[in-house]
Design brief:
It is a single chain. By secondary structure, this protein is α/β, with parallel strands linked by helices. The chain has two domains: 1-21 and 151-203, no CATH class; 22-147, no CATH class. The chain has helices spanning 3-9, 35-52, 84-87, 91-100, 129-132, 135-147, 172-181, 194-202; strands at residues 19-20, 28-31, 67-72, 105-111, 117-125, 161-164, 167-170, 189-190. The longest helix has 18 residues, at 35-52. The protein starts with a helix and ends with a helix.
């Protein structure tokens, strides 16, 4: 990938640049799926974390679980989840906007004092094409998009996943970007586009 292509992955709607990685071990918890799907989702997260060279843990000392993944049928379900409004500000109006937009995904992150990710919230509305998607594909896609703060349009035209025969895999160039972003010599957060050139040089 060229530096410009890498930079586009982390460019926000307002034109600013932001690449942030997790600054602490990831502790996932998954809601709204059966045990078999739960194992698939956690397995995908573990695989992407291992690819990044990052760590997982049994518990987060501050939050308990710090990556919360919710699968739901309707956005109206979320305000009924106990205490979720404490974690997601203005949850009711947010769900109204998501419903009006017929959105299928919503992701939110919380950051530590340095700007690294300390918590992530992933919401997936299982309707239409998503309901037909194999659990392995959906889980890998969500794990990839939770490992870094990507730009909103990073995967709007091209999925981070590809095919190898019958198998769905992470596109190698996206895997390389994740590994580069988690390299010990790279900063946990960057807000200058020159960071993309440093990433590209490591691919």
């Amino acid at each position: 990938m060229t530096p410009d292509q890498v930079q586009a992955l982390f460019t926000r709607k307002d034109g600013s640049y932001l690449c942030a990685r997790w600054g602490r071990p990831i502790v996932p918890v998954v809601f709204g799926v059966d045990d078999a799907t739960l194992a698939i989702v956690k397995g995908a997260i573990e695989a992407v974390v291992a690819l990044a060279g990052h760590k997982m843990a049994e518990t987060d000392p501050e939050l308990g679980a710090n990556l919360m993944v919710f699968f739901l049928r309707d956005w109206a379900e979320l305000p009924q989840v106990p205490n979720l409004d404490r974690l997601i500000p203005d949850l009711g109006p947010l769900c109204d906007r998501l419903a009006a937009a017929e959105a299928h995904h919503y992701r939110a992150f919380r950051f530590d004092a340095e700007g690294a990710i300390k918590a992530g919230f992933v919401f997936v509305r299982m309707e239409g094409m998503l309901a037909e998607m194999p659990a392995e594909t959906l889980a890998l896609n969500e794990a990839v998009q939770a490992i870094l703060v990507w730009g909103e349009a990073a995967f709007a035209e091209l999925s981070p996943l590809g095919r190898a025969g019958e198998r769905v895999i992470l596109r190698p160039e996206i895997g390389d970007v994740i590994r580069a972003a988690y390299a010990p010599v790279m900063p946990p957060v960057a807000r200058d586009g020159s960071h993309a050139y440093r990433l590209a040089a490591r691919l």
